[in-house]
Amino acid sequence: MSTEAPVAPPIAELTACFVDEVIRPYAAKMARGQGLSPDALVRAAGERGLAGLLLPTRYGGAAAGHVEFARFVEAVARVCASSAVILDVHLSVGSEPLLLFGEPAQLQRHLPAIASGRHTAAFALTEPGSGSDAAGLSTRAERDGDGYRLTGTKAFITNCRAADVYVVMARTAPGPRGISAFIVGADSRGLNTGEPLHKMGLAGSWTGELVLDGVSVGSADRLGDEGMGFRVAMAALDSGRIGISAQAVGIAQGCLDDVVSSARRDGRDVDETLLADIHARTVAARLLTAHAARLADLSQPMTRDASIAKLYATDTCVAAAGAAVEMCAPDSGREDHPAAIRLRDAKASQIYEGTNQVQRMVISRSVFDG
């Protein structure tokens, strides 16, 4: 029985062609950090009508739902996890805050370029001293005439150095209600980016430091009212967790593909119990992700459901990657073996968009709150 949610044929066909024509040919190079740059990948998606999946057609987007978005991210991650996280960030946390909280003039100024793939989007919340504790950020936005000057450092920013526009969280007053969101162009004076980090996995995804040294931002580039930044961030992370859940499902499914391919090629037996357990967990993770995505499409509360999907799917993909390495041994001992690549890629999914420890806190508190 198939558990995959039906996808509108045009998006499904575009996705299949994109994976075959762009993702698969570069997957091995992306795993070594030598493939397409993030902005080149987003442009390639834009050329196929996929860089604005969640954006309305009036801005050049595909007006797809979160279910279709999750299917797209899973399909990409099944072949290349690095490409999946680049596109996930661009499509969700990099652009959805603009759609949800932006003024008409802001939408018109930024969304067409994002939807076409001409501009790559990124989300800057995490700092060296505040990751899971988002409310503890210290980047400042100080009043400067009719605008602001942003000063501080962001860390582990996906698409850093490749992005054209960043959604940046900065403090305008003390406490969680003192955080505001800003739209910052990559060409802003005083904005600097570090070299992409050399990471354990996801080598093709650029992750780096964003330094704001008195960056001047006009009031017209504040996203939402002053003090709404925490709400903007939490809304973005809810949607982002659907994307990361889908990425994790794609990695897990890719692990199953590796095991079956290896067993058929070499004519050897596999641990049937372990294979069945990983398959069952992958199916369950896909269903949980689809459930959270459907709630998002219905504009229903889905914070707990997105956390459940993210927790279960990412734990599953790490388990699947470990199992794949075991069942593909000894070949999987090679650094470039697909199962070894997926094992290195999988771990990050338990950390970004809120660590899995944070997901457990969100879930448990929601249970007590009813």
TrEMBL record:
User: By its UniProt entry, which InterPro entries does this protein fall under?
Assistant: Acyl-CoA_DH_CS, Acyl-CoA_Oxase/DH_mid-dom, Acyl-CoA_Oxase/DH_mid-dom_sf, AcylCo_DH-like_C, AcylCo_DH/oxidase_C, AcylCoA_DH/ox_N, AcylCoA_DH/ox_N_sf, AcylCoA_DH/oxidase_NM_dom_sf
> Key word Oxidoreductase present in the record?
yes
Q: Which UniProt keywords apply?
A: FAD, Flavoprotein, Oxidoreductase
In this chain the Acyl-CoA oxidase/dehydrogenase middle domain maps to: 122-215
Residue intervals of the Acyl-CoA dehydrogenase/oxidase N-terminal domain: 13-117
Q: Which cofactor does it need?
A: FAD
Q: Does the keyword rRNA-binding apply?
A: no
Top-level taxonomic group: Bacteria
Gene Ontology MF: a single term = acyl-CoA dehydrogenase activity
Report domain Acyl-CoA dehydrogenase/oxidase C-terminal positions.
Answer: 227-367
Q: Which family does it belong to?
A: Belongs to the acyl-CoA dehydrogenase family.
**Protein name in the entry:** Acyl-CoA dehydrogenase
Which organism is this entry from? Answer: Candidatus Aeolococcus gillhamiae
